[in-house]
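Entry 14. Ran structure prediction on the chain below.
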Amino acid sequence: MNTKQQQAAPLINIRIDGTHFQVHQNELTGTALKQLAGIPAANLLFREVHGPGEDEQIQNETIVQLKSGDAFYEMPPGNFGLI
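Output, structure tokens:
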């Protein structure tokens, strides 16, 4: 293994809207995650929460601690819950 490979940060495997991404950073903002996946800035971003409970909404300015296996999805802005 050469010196460059030894200094490289470990890859973190995440999914956004079902697409696999590998990142070296262990934290990214909501905006950076959206940019990575080509998601419009106005769309909502959520991290899937396993088990009971609501999925976590990620604001653009939120710094997200990433770990392999994290899954995110987007949703266009809208009037949720209105009939």
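The two ends are 60 Å apart (CA to CA). Will compare against last week's run tomorrow.
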